[in-house]
Amino acid sequence: MNELDTTSERLQNLVIDMVMVLEKYKDDSGKIVNNVQKELDKSLSRQRDMMVELVRNELLDGASQQVKNYSADMEEARELMIKQVGEFNTYLQHVNKSNQKIFRQTVLGGAITLATLVVGGIALVFFYSSIISQKKLEADMLNRINNADIVRCGNELCAKTGKTGANGYRVIQRRQ
Q1: What is the rounded CA–CA span in Å between residue 114 and residue 118?
Q2: Do residues 150 and 136 make contact, with C-beta atoms less than 8 angstroms apart?
Q3: Mapping DSSP to helix (H, G, I), strand (E, B) and coil, where does residue 160 land?
Q4: Taken in order 135, 138, 143, 144, is the CA torsion positive or negative?
């Protein structure tokens, strides 16, 4: 049994050594992978920086040309706007003169119309005041007639007077 124990112990030691070797292989492999990864990252970072620099230079060149073209277009537009503003100002002055002329004519027409209305109003006041004074006397008479106690007596009109008659009313005679 001794031999069996020794063999078992050897196998156990061998298994332990194999496990240690595998652990060492795993650690060394991880280090190698990490080193390769770091080298790849550095290489990719350099390539990325180079690509970014290349794209940036191309964009700057393109943008610079675009800005120059845009500036030239804006300068043309500015010159055209200056010309159009001058033309518009000339037109605006002409329109203002025309508007002032129309305004003066309108004010003059309004003043003449107002004066005509005032004169006509004064004439109408004098005309109607004489008619009103004439009609005032007639209205006073009609008011007195309306306030009188007048009733129909058959085909005639009767008025109540202070003197007594049939039922206190007397027949009103017609004008001849």
Answers
A1: 6
A2: no
A3: strand
A4: positive
Q: Which helix (H) or strand (E) holds 157?
A: strand 156-160
User: Is the alpha carbon torsion for 83, 89, 94, 98 positive or negative?
Assistant: positive
Give the count of alpha carbons within 13 A of 95, CB side only: 6
Whole-model pTM: value is 0.35
pLDDT higher than 70, residue 29: yes
Output phi, psi for 173, to 5 deg.
-80, 150
CB 169 within 8 A of CB 153: yes
Contact indicator for 150, 169 with CB cutoff of 8 Å: no
Q: What is the pLDDT of residues 116-129, one digit of tens each?
A: 999 999 999 989 99
* Token pair belonging to 9: 């112990």
